[in-house]
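Appendix B, example 12.
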Amino acid sequence: MSKFRGKSECRLDEKGRIIIPAKFRRNISPEAEETFVITRGTRGCLYAYPLDEWVKIEEKFEEIPENLENSELKSCLNEFMIESKYDRQGRTSLSKELIEMGKLNKDVLLIGVGRMIEIWDPQVREDARNKNDTRDDAEKEMDQTFFQAINIAKNPTQGG
């Protein structure tokens, strides 16, 4: 099982890549096959899950009853998701959509949060920490939907 703790700073290069630091790469289980699943997160960040952890979330989603709301939750979660294998230098690629969604510029902050890594623009993180929420209503609603989807995946009995 992969576990991530602490924070690290890195740079977004011109090809849309960031370096996953060695302290995080050392904690990735072999089952992840050096691959991250990266998708939109909440509060303005992106989530990077090792592949094996993402597979567990997908398996939980299979247990959620099918209805319109749950279908929308699954779509919200998967719409911008990418799989990205890191290279020998630890570089992993982000899509243009994810870079825009995370409002990422040159400086990037990585925060280990248990089974995943949050990817932040440092100013967006500071605003979130200080609760200076500059997101519009649509972004806030998407965050709420995404958060609900993750919680349902963790506890499928909520998905009625």
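The longest strand covers residues 4-11. Strands lie at 4-11, 17-19, 35-40, 46-50, 82-85, 91-93, 107-114, 116-120.
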